[in-house]
Amino acid sequence: MNSVSRQSVLSRLGPGGLLYAANKIIAVASGKEDERWRGKDEGALFKRWRRTPSSVDSAPTVPVPTTPPSQPSDLLKFLAINALELSAPASDALLKSRSSEWFQLSGHPGSLAPAGPGTVWKRRAPGDHPAHNPERDAYEALAACPHMRSAIPRYYRELEYGGEHFIELQDLLHGFRDPHVMDIKMGTRTFLEDEVCNARARPDLYDKMVRLDPNAPTESEHAARAVTKLRYMQFREQRSSSAEQGFRIEAVKLPGQPPLTDLQKVREPLQLAATIARFLGNDERARHAIVSRLREIRDLFERSEFFRTHEIVGSSIFIIYDDERVGAWLIDFAKTRRVPENIVVNHRALWKQGNHEEGFLYGLDRLINIMETANLSKIGNEATEQPDVTR
């Protein structure tokens, strides 16, 4: 079957039909149609079959137990899954089967969706177009970089579906069981320089500032009832730990609990340490593995030619661990930009308009230091006595 007719058939089947067809392929190949593969338990296919983890997929500290191969053959299972992964967004059955293990921790609601076993689709950022898609370009460049390909989610492809454009990436949550998850926005500056080049004072931004902190505007700003975009953005950075520490904790997910996303008050070093201690739960094994992984990422970052020539604005470090594995990756490159040829960035210097420094490595240094030095048992107790720190 050629690619055109194959795609045509697949499009007519639709996601639900593909799932049913995949189950039937397996049932027929195995010579039986027992209840594990019937439609009423369609999720069983994905619970039983997983891709074999690799060094690119994760940074495990404890090997994941492998299940001995069973009928039907692994090849037929692969073909069935491959057919399913050509359909997206995911079918209702697939979403239901993954609802207990997949969630979007932070970011723009609806920007991510599970696409197949082990993959997600991320919608192209508003304003980007095929000729200028910074996130796609960054992932393609980093995937080709021998230093950085293990520090990012695996990049598969760019595609169009239903008139919208997506990139397909490794689902970092895939393979973890009810994990601890933390999303950390990196840098002292999380806005692009061209976002704040307009010096016009704006009443709407003044109103936003006053709603957040009535005492924040200066006397002259109160008199004008307006502030510039740069003033407002820096005010927002100073309200979190970004400006002083070079990172801020965007969200935390603990096992069996809903995500904590309202973390704007977590800005002082002790508060950050308390939040990290709560995330680690006195697990020294996880702490040492995460610190080791963060040091590895920093070393790879510093050796990468890509990062010597780009500013990395608004990117995050995504940390996951459960009882068996630990992983951390760089994610989110929608605001990554190549710097002018006459500019040299070290990712630690103080930002001034035009120098393109964003403080990524400054923040990573601080994050590693807090992870290393925090007294988990002591700070963990303090965190439980002060629940408002992380709520």
Automatic annotation (TrEMBL):
Protein name: Kinase
Gene Ontology BP terms: inositol phosphate biosynthetic process; phosphatidylinositol phosphate biosynthetic process
InterPro entries linked to this entry: IPK
EC number: 2.7.-.-
Cleavable signal peptide: none
Keywords noted in UniProt: Kinase, Transferase
Organism phylogeny: Eukaryota, Metazoa, Ecdysozoa, Arthropoda, Hexapoda
Gene Ontology MF: a single term: inositol hexakisphosphate kinase activity
Keyword Nuclease: no
GO cellular component: cytoplasm; nucleus
Family (UniProt): Belongs to the inositol phosphokinase (IPK) family.
